[in-house]
Request: fold
Amino acid sequence: MTRRVRELSPRWLAEEHHILLRYLHKRFRAEGTTFGGWVRARRLSECRAGVARHDAQHLAISAVAARWGFTSPAHFSHAFRAEYGQSPSQWCRSARAHQSHARP
Reply:
């Protein structure tokens, strides 16, 4: 997965969809974001889901983040906190506590 994340670029996406790069950026602006902002939000969302998964308990949070292209744990932690209002480890603890209470 990490390899594909690193290859992702606005130019690549525009070429894949046979549209002009300028049009791609215009579409993101119409949605109130940028290509980079959209990618960051998706990566963070996948990380958020990944650290909460029960079967991922043996993985370090930094390993989940690295799978989605975050090579710096400090940068990941800062971006996660800015997006969700809590640290990745706080989110992980609360999500796993919720999961353990939800099981029969």
Q: What stands out?
A: The chain has a mean pLDDT of 86. The longest helix spans residues 35-52.
